[in-house]
């Protein structure tokens, strides 16, 4: 049995449908992420799971028991908010043990579980400190420890890393992964940050306008998006309008106006005449001179339009003969060598025959 199951849940605010007939299954011990732009419905779903909102239709089953109608304080669920919501007048130890004291646990039990919780989040020497004496990352860990001390069956994280700076955010991502693995609790995480979702999740549900566009493992979402919204929302991608045509011996191929033929795997169900886009990631594109790319099935002449230096890589935008701009990543592996090709230079652009995907209109 799944740990959490959402069955056809819908939530309306007046005429606006925030969540539109969404069904999801989340397994025990899974790190599951709801990903999407602002206003897509992901936070509303989290609030319905927590009990802060109630669906207009559908069921929310935790271990097979419908939670709809059960108030938030009676659900075996805990939420960690972006603001952490720590009590400033309480110490770290008092903040973490607050749920146990409210539930009137014995003092000895509170001490033991507080000790375990502090060790779990590596805050062993901080029990007597106050929140304002801690770093942002330490405050995050206090909020997590307080959420975990009650041993909830489900932990909900609402944009809980968004307030951290980039370096600390990366460190906390690693800590979250390790913590989730150690405690084995099911995590449901809400974020609009694609890189964060890809790094943390076992599976991701990509949402748009109240609906789920695709549910998949991170590598599948990134490499095999189901539609143009998912392809465009997850990471950088170039999309080139193309049409399916027939070549020799009845084979199907992609043809691009002003560019020619593109060799790529075509999904099942495509027929001659289908229109859509050929979508390819910047890291799949190679640029260089003719001799370097001659072995690739797909190679075209282009002109360097712009260059963006990002430290570890440089991002090149190359204009193809039909006016399409395609992005390519080149690693800056040689010391002090940030500009390999100059703006305006004529170069070759190419990619493997198995790179990219065709997406219908």
Care to describe what's here?
The protein has 361 residues and is α+β, with helices and mostly antiparallel strands. It folds into 2 domains: 229 residues, 3-Layer(aba) Sandwich (Rossmann fold); 125 residues, Nucleic acid-binding proteins (OB fold (Dihydrolipoamide Acetyltransferase, E2P)). Helices cover 24% and strands 34% of the residues. It has 9 helices and 20 strands. It has a 6-stranded mixed sheet with strand order 6-7-8-3-9-10, sandwiched between helices. It has a 5-stranded antiparallel sheet with strand order 13-12-11-14-20. Helix 2 packs across helix 3 and helix 2 packs parallel to helix 4. The mean pLDDT is 89.
Characteristic key phrases:
single chain; 361 residues; OB fold (Dihydrolipoamide Acetyltransferase, E2P); 5-stranded antiparallel sheet; 9 helices; 20 strands
């Amino acid at each position: 049995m799944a740990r959490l199951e959402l069955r056809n849940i819908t939530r309306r605010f007046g005429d606006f449908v925030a969540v539109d007939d969404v069904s999801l299954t989340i397994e025990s011990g899974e790190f599951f992420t709801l990903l999407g732009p602002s206003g897509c419905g992901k936070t509303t779903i989290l609030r319905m799971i927590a009990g802060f909102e109630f669906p207009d239709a559908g069921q929310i089953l935790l271990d097979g028991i419908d939670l709809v109608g059960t108030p938030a304080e009676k659900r075996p669920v805990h939420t960690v908010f972006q603001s952490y919501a720590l009590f400033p007048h309480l110490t770290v130890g008092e903040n973490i043990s607050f749920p146990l004291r409210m539930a009137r646990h014995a003092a000895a039990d509170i001490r033991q579980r507080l000790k375990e919780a502090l060790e779990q989040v590596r805050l062993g020497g901080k029990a007597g400190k106050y929140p304002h004496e801690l770093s942002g990352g330490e405050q995050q860990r206090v909020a997590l420890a307080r959420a975990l001390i009650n041993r909830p069956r489900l932990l909900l994280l609402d944009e809980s890393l968004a307030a951290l700076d980039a370096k600390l955010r990366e460190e906390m991502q690693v800590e979250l992964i390790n913590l989730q693995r150690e405690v084995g609790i099911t995590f449901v995480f809400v974020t609009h940050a694609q890189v964060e979702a890809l790094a943390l999740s076992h599976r991701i549900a990509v949402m748009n306008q109240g609906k789920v566009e695709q549910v998949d493992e991170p590598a599948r979402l990134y490499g095999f998006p189901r539609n143009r919204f998912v392809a465009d929302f997850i990471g950088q991608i170039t999309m080139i309008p193309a049409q399916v045509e027939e070549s020799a011996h009845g084979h199907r191929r992609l043809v691009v106006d002003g560019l020619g033929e593109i060799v790529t795997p075509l999904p099942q169900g495509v027929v001659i005449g289908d229109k859509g886009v050929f979508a390819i990631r910047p890291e799949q594109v190679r640029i260089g001179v003719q001799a370097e790319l001659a072995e690739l099935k797909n190679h075209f002449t282009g002109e360097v339009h712009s260059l963006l230096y990002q430290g570890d890589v440089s991002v090149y935008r190359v204009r193809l003969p039909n006016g399409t701009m395609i992005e390519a990543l080149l690693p800056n592996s040689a010391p002090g060598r940030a500009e390999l090709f100059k703006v305006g230079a004529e170069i070759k652009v190419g990619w493997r025959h198995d790179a990219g995907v065709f997406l219908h209109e």
